[in-house]
Design goal:
There is one protein chain. By secondary structure, this protein is of the alpha+beta class. It has one domain (about 1-85): Alpha-Beta Plaits (2-Layer Sandwich). It is built from three helices and four strands; from the N terminus they run E-H-E-E-H-E-H. A four-stranded antiparallel beta sheet has the order 2-3-1-4, with helices on both faces. The longest helix is centred in the middle third of the chain and has 12 residues, at about 45-55. The protein is globular.
């Protein structure tokens, strides 16, 4: 059993991708901590898993990448990391969060930023 990052085009709605993952026997378990991406578990290698998903997604762009504990990092709840690092273990309970940064236009810097101002 291996863990994979599965990312797909925004042209495929999350509900459709979720239905595909639920109906695909090659996918043992999956969680979706991000929009347009899921962490999935399968006994297939990445190439074979991608072939199975391609047959269900048609022309939708997607990527399947194996997650190795020694070469993956980021910020997730601890139980999500357990899911990544221990394929076949229990499904984690994920609490959805709104983690979007404050909306600051790209051409402005926050007040008090030392890089703002003239010389």
């Amino acid at each position: 059993m291996k863990s994979y990052m599965f990312a797909y085009s925004q042209l495929c709605p999350d509900w459709q991708a979720q239905a595909i993952l639920d109906a695909t026997q090659a996918v043992t378990n999956w969680i979706q901590p991000f929009p347009n991406a899921a962490i999935i578990q399968s006994s297939l290698d990445a190439r074979d898993l991608a072939a199975v998903l391609r047959s269900r997604l048609g022309q939708t762009w997607f990527l399947v990448s194996e997650l190795h504990s020694a070469s993956v990092d980021g910020w997730l709840p601890g139980n999500a990391w357990q899911f990544v690092n221990t394929p076949g273990g229990p499904l984690p309970f994920l609490v959805p969060q709104d983690i979007r940064p404050p909306q600051v236009p790209l051409h402005q810097r926050p007040a008090g930023d030392p890089s703002v101002g003239g010389s």
